[in-house]
Amino acid sequence: MPVLPDTLDSSRPEHALNRATALEQLAALGEEHARALQGAGAKYVERHHSRGKLLPRERIELLVDRDSPFLELSPLAAHGTTFPLGASVVTGIGVVEGVECVLIANDPTVRGGATNPVTSKKVGRAMVIARENRMPLVNLVESGGADLSTQAEIFIPGGAMFRDLTQFSAAGIPTIALVFGNSTAGGAYVPGMSDHVVMVKERAKVFLGGPPLVKMATGEDSDDESLGGAEMHARTSGLADYLAVDELDALRIGRQVVRGLNWRKAGPGPTRPSDPPLYPADDLLAIASADLRVPFDPRDVLARVVDGSRFDEFKPLYGTSLVTGWASVHGYPVGVLANARGVLFSEESEKAAQFIQLANSADTPLVFLQNTTGYMVGKEYEQRGIIKDGAKMINAVSNSTVPHVTIVMGASYGAGHYGMCGRAYGPRFLFSWPGAKSAVMGPAQLAGVLSIVSRQSAESRGLPFDEAADAQLRELVEAQIESESLAMANSGRVYDDGIIDPRDTRTILGLCLSVIHNGPVQGARGYGVWRM
User: Fold this and answer.
1) pLDDT for the residue 144
2) H-helix or E-strand containing 326?
C-alpha cells in the first residue's frame, strides 16, 4: 500500500499560528475538564469521603483492569446550561477482566446523584453505545432518583432507560448493577431490571418510596434498613444477588461477575500490521487551520494517524475536494472519507456514494474526517443537479450498515454535516477537535441571510430600511451563532461523545474500532431508490 509523504511545512507562519491556537483551545478545554472532575465542589467531595465513600471515578479506577485505558464519554455534558457540568454522572468505556464494558457511575456529590434532563440524555447516549456495539453494561449506582425540580422534562422520556435494560437482557447483553448508596424511586428499577446485582452492606438503600413517602402514602412507619437495606434485599426480597461488606468488596465482586460472563467478541480482530505512523503525532496540533475558512490537506492528518502512514487513495484525480481511500488503524481495516477543501460538489458526492457502497460490499468500517462548509450552491450547480447528487451521498451514508466513526476536525456546516455522517446519521462514535464548529452555516453567512431577507421584506412593503439597526442585529446574530457552534457548546448538548486532543486521534480511533468489533461487522447488501 502506498505511503503518504510528509508535506507539512513547519517553516510557514501558519504552522506556528495553528499550533498556538490549538494549545490555547486545549488549555481552555483542560480548565473545563478540571471543573467537571470537581463534582459539586470541595465541600461536598470532602463530606462524601468523610463517610468512607469513594467518588465515581475512584470507583471506576478500582473496577477496571490495572493500567488499562478508560475512555470517558461526554465529560462536558451540560456545559453552557444551568445544570451541573458533567450532568451528575460519569460514563465511559473501560476494560474489566479483559472485557470492554460501558460504565455508568452516578456522582452523589452533585444533588445526591439525582437525574436531570442532561443526565438522562448522557446516560441514554452511553446505553446506545452499549447496545450498538454489543457491550456489557455496568451501572455504579448511588442516586436519589429524578431531580424533582425538573420532573416534567424527565419523567416520561426517562422511562426508556428501564425499557432498554430489559431489552439488553433479552438481546443477550449482560447488565450489572453495583449499588453503593441510595437507589430511590425510579432509580430502584436499575438494580431491579439488571441481570446481576451487588449491594453494599449498611450502605445500599433500594426502595420505590423512602420512609417519608411511605408515611405519606400509607401511614406506615418504617426505617431505611427494613424498607430497602442491602441485607433485607439479600435475605428477604431476593433483589440482591451478592452482599458486599464494603465498596472495595463490591468492586471485587463486580469484577468476578464480569469474569463469569464468559464474554467473547463476535467481530473479527485486527488483520493488518499495526505499526505506528512515520510522522510525529505532535504535528497534528499545527495542521487544522486557526481560521476555519482556510482549508488544509487531510492527508497530513492521515499520515500521522493510520498504520505505517499507508493510504491507498480511491479516485485521487476525481472530486478532489473529498479524499477517499483505504487504510488501517491499530490493525483494523478502514475506509476513509476526509474533506480536503470544505465544499462538496456533485463529483465529490458521487465519489462518496460509490466509495461507501464499496466499503459496505467489503464489510469495512468507515472513518469520516469532517471539515466541510456544505454542498455547493449557486445557479450553475443547482442546474447541474447538486441536490440529487448530494442526495446520493446522504442516501449512501443513511443506509450504510458498516460501523461509522466521525471526527469533526474543523468546520461542520449545513448538509455537509449530514453527508459526512453527523450525529443524526448514527455514527457509532463522534468526537470533535477543540477548534471544531458545527451549525447550519457560518455565523457571517447566517447573519447575512437574515439581513437580506429583512431588506427584501422592507422593500416589498415600501418601508425604509434601518441600516444601523441591521448592522447591530447582524453583530448580535453572528455572536450568538458563533457561541452556539463552538465545540464545547455542542459537547454540552451531548452532540458529540467528547472533545479530544488532536494528538490522541489515533488512540481514540483504535479504542473505538476495538469496541466496534465486539459485534459483527456487516455491510448493506442493497439500497433504496437512487435519483439519477
Assistant:
1) 80
2) strand 322-329
DSSP code, position 277: P
Please report, for residues 94, 253, 326, 342, 362, the alpha-carbon distance to residue 323 in angstroms, rounded to integers and kept in the order given: 33, 49, 10, 11, 19
134 pLDDT band (50/70/90 cuts)? very high
- HEC profile for 105-174? EECCCCHHHCECHHHHHHHHHHHHHHHHCCCCEEEEEEECCECHHHHHHHHHHHCHHHHHHHHHHHCCCC
Give the residue among 15, 25, 16, 12 at the shortest CA–CA distance from 437: 25
Class of residue 102 by CB neighbours under 10 A (exposed 0-12, middle 13-18, buried 19+): buried
Cα-to-chain-centroid distance, residue 487: 12
Cell, residue 441: 452555516
When pLDDT is averaged across residues 161-180 and rounded to a whole number, the result is 95
Partnered with residue 438 across adjacent β-strands are 412
**Pair 40, 109: CB distance under 8 Å:** yes
- Cell readout for 466 is 434601518
Please identify which residue in the block is written with the cell numbers 468489533: 517
Amino acid identity at 178:
L
Residue ranges of alpha helices (H) inside 260-399 are 298-302, 346-361, 379-384, 386-399
DSSP secondary structure code for residue 483 in this structure: H
* Grid cell locating 335: 475506509
Strand partners, 327: 334
Question: CA–CA separation, 8 vs 300, rounded Å?
Answer: 7
